[in-house]
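Posting here for the record, re: zinc ion.
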Amino acid sequence: MPELPEIFCRAREMNEYLTGRTIASVEVKQPKCLNVPVETFMEGLRGNTLGPTTYHGKWLLTELTQGHLLVNLGMGGELLLVDHDVMPEKWRVRIDFCDGKTFAVNFWWFGSTHYVAPGALAQHQQSAKLGPNALDLTADQFQAILAGRRGRIKSFLLDQSNLAGIGNAYIHDILFRAGIHPSRSISTLGDRERHELFLSIRTEFERSIEKGAAQYELNLLGGRGEFGVADLLVGYREGKPCPTCAAEILKVKTGSTTSYICPKCQVL
Ligand SMILES: [Zn+2]
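Prediction output follows.
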């Protein structure tokens, strides 16, 4: 499932390879992934030139000459730039450009491809209800988001309305690097621990972004990221030694979720 590093890298690739291309035609195989009728979607996109792409949570937002194209990969999928006549086997939406290239969108399970008319982006509820991107926050803004909050830190970080981009793949290493047990209550975290957490989110996400994000996702040109299992610190490594103290990494139940922790570095 894509998280912030994967979405960040897809946005970066879209800026590099899609910006400036003009849409000749659109085809939709899965109308359920649209927010408007197929005809409206096709009409809205046709003739537009793609501008810059940004992201918010799992949404990729591409500025068009008129309006926006929004893509959400959901549980995962592929966004590929291919030649018109070399389409991948599976696709749900294809956007054909005037220059013979195609932007092919596929979802493994279910995703979204939305067209938003000019001036209506603020009313796009699914993206507007998300908290700020985890990588966009300053240290002070992060402290402010945590201030006065209760509940367990792990659930708080995974709730996309608090901050957007942290999911089940990266959360374990983020908490480990900060030395914080996933079941810690936010109210027990000192200023220093909160700052460590802020730094840890940055470090872990940047480490993955530098490698083009997760290996299990394809990039826009069909290659793979280089951030793999070997790069994880404690996540999905139960029974292996902690990289800091060599204690055995444990897989534990934390509320309704599973967590990977070092019992010595992350004391409850
Ligand atoms: Zn340890």
